Amino acid sequence: MKSLVRRRVVNWVMTGLCATALAAALVPLISLLWLVISRGVAGLSWSFFTAIPAPVGESGGGVGNAIVGTLYIVGIGCLFGVPVGVGAGVYLAERGDTRLGGAIRFTAEVLSGVPSIVIGIVAYALVVLPMRRFSALAGGVALAVLMIPTLARSTEELVRLVPGALREASLALGVPQWRTSLRIILRTALGGILTAILLSVARAAGETAPLLFTSLNNQFWNWRPDQPTASLTVQIFNYAVSPYAEWHEKAWTSALVLLLMIGALSLAGRFASRRTFR
């Protein structure tokens, strides 16, 4: 009887400690969300999404060019990073036991722990300096480097979850191994890979440091990949460090817009994951 009472007491104590830890983790998260929403929702308007930044001292203006620039730069990053990251993950899953596979896996693990500002400096040296200008292309390259390690490891784990019977059945029918990997294995794991892509895109869209060294900023609309391009994260940084109260309010509203964009991508990834694994 004493043993049963002791186990129940220990169970209640540990449950209380877990609940306390959960509350301690949720309090700063909820307070941060509430602060961004309460400070940023007042500045939301149609012109804020469609107009370009107004000069100092003038009312109005928006971050339409920064929103489009963020989508533009992230799109360039996906163009470079998604094929390389997914291809590396498939290779690691199919032939990762070789020395080359071990080297690729080790490189991906190291790159996943490198600070984003270091990636920005490397992209500055490899792309900005040879081009002699900041550009959306340089920003896309920096974001692609950030996306590749996450995509490679996620794709590797997802491809390994595919039943081996599918691979064996395809090979038994005379299908080449490269076509089996592309048409059978990759298609089976496509839902999970899509989720990994969306999550990596959400992470890349929230980066600031690499874009400060690569795409810099632009106060106007820009569609050329070889020119400086605005982005939401850099625009928020510029507004936040300025001495103008109006720009501070715009920084809060821009942060709310960025939060909504990243939240939408995360929810899309979670929804795709549920539908895939259900």
What proportion of the residues is helical, as a percent range? over 70%
Overall, the morphology is globular
Low-confidence stretches: none
Number of helices: 12
Q: What oligomeric state is this?
A: single chain
Let me know the number of strands. 0
Mean pLDDT: 88
Cα end-to-end separation:
43 Å
Structural class: mainly alpha
Order of helices and strands: HHHHHHHHHHHH
Largest sheet: none
Q: Per DSSP, what share of the residues sits in E-state strands of 2 or more residues?
A: under 5%
Question: Over the alpha carbons, how many angstroms does the gyration radius reach?
Answer: 23 Å
Question: Topology, please?
Answer:
Elements: H1 2-40, H2 46-50, H3 64-95, H4 99-112, H5 116-131, H6 136-160, H7 164-172, H8 177-188, H9 190-205, H10 209-213, H11 232-240, H12 245-277
Helix pairs in contact: 1-12, 3-4, 3-6, 3-9, 4-6, 5-6, 6-9, 7-8, 9-12, 11-12
Describe this structure in words.
It is a single chain. By secondary structure, the chain is mainly alpha-helical. Helices cover 77% and strands 0% of the residues. It has helices at 2-40, 46-50, 64-95, 99-112, 116-131, 136-160, 164-172, 177-188, 190-205, 209-213, 232-240, 245-277. The longest helix is centred in the first third of the chain and has 39 residues, at 2-40. The chain is globular and about 70 Å long.
In short, what is this structure?
With 278 residues, this protein is mainly alpha-helical. Helix content is 77%, strand content 0%.
What keyword list fits this structure?
12 helices; mainly alpha; single chain; 278 residues
